[in-house]
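Internal ticket #5521
Category: modeling
Description: The requester needs a full-assembly model to guide mutagenesis choices. All entity lines are attached below as received. Residue total reported by intake: 474.
Assigned to: D.W.
Attached entities:
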Amino acid sequence: MKLTLKIWRQKNTNSHGKFENYQITADTHMSFLEMLDVLNQDLIEQGKDPVAFEHDCREGICGACGVVIDGRPHGVLKGTTTCQLHMRFFKDGDTITIEPWRASAFPVIKDLVVDRSAFDRIIQAGGYVSVNTGQAQDGNAIPIERDTAAKAFDAAACIGCGACVAACPNASAMLFVSAKVSHLFHLPQGKVEDESRVMSMVTQMDKEGFGNCSNVYACEAECPKEISVENIALMNRRFIKSSLTSNK
Amino acid sequence: MNWFIAFLKSSLGKKLIMSLTGLFLMIFLVVHLSGNFQLLLQDEGKNFNLYTKFMTTNPVIKAVSYLLYIFIFLHTIQGMVLWRQNRAARKNRYAVPVTKTSSFASRNMAYLGMIIFIFLVIHLWQFWFQMKIGGIGMITYDSHEPVNNLYEVVAYAFGQWWYVLFYVICMIFLGYHLMHGFQSAFQSLGINHKKYSPLIKGIGMIYSVVVPLGFAAIPIIVYLLR
Ligand code: HEM
Ligand code: SF4
Ligand code: FES
């Protein structure tokens, strides 16, 4: 299949980027990232600068590979990451526009790679639990009701890719932060820091310059792990309650 | 007190204010609409004018109306602050906008709100402010003290086709604002539950169609019957 790629090229954070067009012959069996590998091989052979894009696991679990493909974070396919998207979802002759996540809190490092360390700082602010050191505990020592465990697990599926921020018209990080808050809230291990966690994480989120949530729900629709906006509601009520009633 | 200010200034605190003021405004709209239906009574405005007198002089209602002005102000200011922050959070726009998975209303709440605000200013200036500065004629019913003949002013405005059109178009924008706003207000409060959310969404849908439709129907009927 013959494709035209319209790719965002930007030297570094401070330079102005622009789109460049590339012609490429791809195969329907390739993954989207393999298609970009082929392009980069061509560019290298021509002595040109290859397109920088982030990737690691290439199996949908690390969250590194997010780009916006024709106005869809991680591409058209629901519940999948860019690395899991295959070229069979495109047609011969298509022009594909590839852009980085666009958010003031995620500055572009180069081309399609953005700096998502704002997420790390939010996690550092409260996304941890207190544990007993010493002897390792027995795996199933603490009984947890099945539905509660399922809720925690669904929220824990978040891979921190940032597609929610990319999808949101306000570049809000609420889905990510709420997934982390909700994941730890549902488990007994998370109860220790319950009140302070939600307050510190929301405070850090605000500091990083993400937008506010307008309940648009594009995040949920574009999230490769299909994290539910019910987590956002949970975070809203935990935050209101903790702010009004905790000693902090 | 500092903790409380910090709470209200946080992103979620701001949304809490939007939600509570929005919910209050939605209750107000129902009261306002039920009053407006008296414009259709074909009694030369007697009921409407006496109702207006009651609404502007009853001390309880006066107190609530001050709350209403404060809430409109808060909702508008806070909405504009959120809008500015949200735009700043994405300085570089997408070449292909990410719009396929969200509703028109949800993405345009601020613009819809601004249109409603312009409508409100014109609306208040025309009816409420004119009454405050005594720019409206008086009328006497059954040898009681004279009351403002607001009906005359409203009926005159509703007799102008372009005014009716303007009014109806603004109600369509209000409908979109409410269509997203109703359920959104509950989500902001943290109410999203599989037992209640379908009901909230259903009532929100009905409310956001019926209320603006009711408002819009009145000038159309007055215009046609004039
Ligand atoms: C009678 C008139 C109005 C009613 C009943 C109303 C109702 C609502 C409701 C219920 C919400 C949802 C709150 C939430 O998401 O928690 C909302 C949001 C909003 N309203 Fe209004 N509103 C009205 C007028 C206005 C006006 C005059 C403006 C000013 C420009 C405005 C601007 C906004 C904005 C910007 C939002 C979205 C906030 C966000 O989610 O980021 N509204 N409105
Ligand atoms: S909530 Fe979804 S879209 Fe957002 S960071 Fe987590 S996995 Fe990615
Ligand atoms: S490369 Fe790891 S999720 Fe795509």
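Resolution: model delivered.
Comment from assignee: The radius of gyration of chain A is 20 Å.
Ticket closed.
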